């Protein structure tokens, strides 16, 4: 009986990735540290994809998916700030979150254009 290799579609663009699940593939996070610390991104988002890098075409698609997740998370937090920001420094943290959201959107548009 012949083993059939499963094909995976990229979670960002939908194209076939050409990677298999058994590979030790790991794409680097290329989001600049001045936008969000790499350690925080790894803990909050990239850990979710840690064992699923075969689900992405390349580092660009991997990072675009991380950015989308971060944008969605920040947008949701800003829609309901009372539930997502502590009262003590809420206003300053909301300002920082908006700045980070703008930087993420800018970086995403730059990354989407690059080949």
Question: Could you give a short description of this structure?
Answer:
With 115 residues, the chain is mostly helical. Helix content is 53%, strand content 0%.
Characterization of this structure:
The chain is mainly alpha-helical. The protein is 53% helix and 0% strand. It is elongated.
Question: pLDDT under 50 segments (min length 5)?
Answer: none
Distance between termini?
Answer: 41 Å
Residue fraction in strands: under 5%
| Count of extended strands | 0
The topology string of helices and strands comes to: HHHH
Q: Given the helix and strand composition, which structural class is it?
A: mainly alpha
Q: Can you tell me the overall shape? A: elongated
**Portion of residues in helices?**
40-55%
Query: What summary fits the major beta sheet?
Result: none
Q: Cα-atom Rg, whole angstroms?
A: 17 Å
Summed up, the helix count is 4
Averaging pLDDT over every residue, what do you get? 88
Give a topology summary:
Blueprint: H1 38-49, H2 59-79, H3 81-84, H4 90-113
Helix pairs in contact: 2-4
